[in-house]
């Protein structure tokens, strides 16, 4: 085969007269080019229809593998920290139990008012009234406000306020009003609040599982 002759035949070829039925008589270089194109299109089609979906599946499998590895590392770290987390939960439960024990229940409110009255008497104060208001229900507790008004000298009133704050049950003090009386003494009016713990209500699903 003379390459120069084939190049000349290819160059002198009238492309408009080419007929696929006469491809056997085409110049060798043209036949070679057509064969390469056909093979290239065939391989491209095979890759598109066969290899490309497999490549996409492989890519997704690798992504899933990476996600599973991340999940495994996360769960392994949580498992390693589980004893410390349990210890923290137990400590928090202990603190919560201590705080709940400091919150008086409904039946203990009269006893708490007696303690406040005794604190006032110990400080030689005159008690005008200790009057309960209506309780206010919140999500996890019941707020129990009451008004207090006592009379006495400045230092004894200060000792009374400190004594109420030091009671074993939690009592918060608000809205202080201090004014003189006709007998050269002071009158203290304030709003005090104590709280009762109210456990959250169980959901219907939780009740059904019990």
TrEMBL record:
The keyword Membrane applies. This is Pilus assembly protein PilO. Keywords: Membrane, Transmembrane, Transmembrane helix. The chain crosses the membrane at residues 28-50. Gene3D superfamilies: 3.30.70.60, Helix hairpin bin. The keyword Transmembrane applies. PANTHER family: FIMBRIAL ASSEMBLY PROTEIN PILO-LIKE PROTEIN-RELATED, TYPE IV PILUS INNER MEMBRANE COMPONENT PILO. It holds the Pfam family PilO. GO terms for biological process: type IV pilus assembly; type IV pilus-dependent motility. The lineage of its organism: Bacteria, Pseudomonadati, Pseudomonadota, Gammaproteobacteria, Oceanospirillales.
């Amino acid at each position: 085969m003379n390459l120069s002759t084939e190049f000349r035949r290819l160059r002198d070829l009238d492309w408009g007269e080419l007929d696929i039925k006469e491809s056997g008589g085409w110049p060798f270089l043209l036949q070679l080019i057509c064969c390469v194109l056909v093979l290239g299109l065939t391989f491209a089609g095979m890759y598109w229809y066969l290899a490309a979906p497999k490549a996409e599946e492989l890519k997704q499998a690798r992504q899933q593998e990476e996600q599973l590895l991340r999940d495994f590392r996360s769960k392994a770290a949580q498992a390693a920290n589980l004893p410390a987390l349990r210890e923290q939960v137990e400590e928090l439960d202990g603190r919560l139990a201590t705080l709940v024990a400091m919150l008086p229940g409904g039946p203990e409110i009269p006893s708490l008012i007696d303690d406040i009255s005794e604190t006032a008497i110990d400080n030689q104060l005159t008690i005008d009234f200790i009057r309960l208001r209506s309780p206010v229900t919140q999500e996890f507790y019941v707020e129990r406000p009451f008004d207090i008004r006592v009379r006495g000298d400045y230092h004894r009133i200060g000792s009374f306020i400190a004594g109420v704050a030091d009671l074993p049950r939690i009592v918060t003090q608000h809205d202080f009003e201090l004014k003189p009386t006709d007998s050269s003494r002071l009158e203290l009016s304030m709003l005090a609040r104590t709280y009762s713990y109210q456990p959250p209500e169980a959901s219907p699903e939780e009740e059904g599982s019990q």
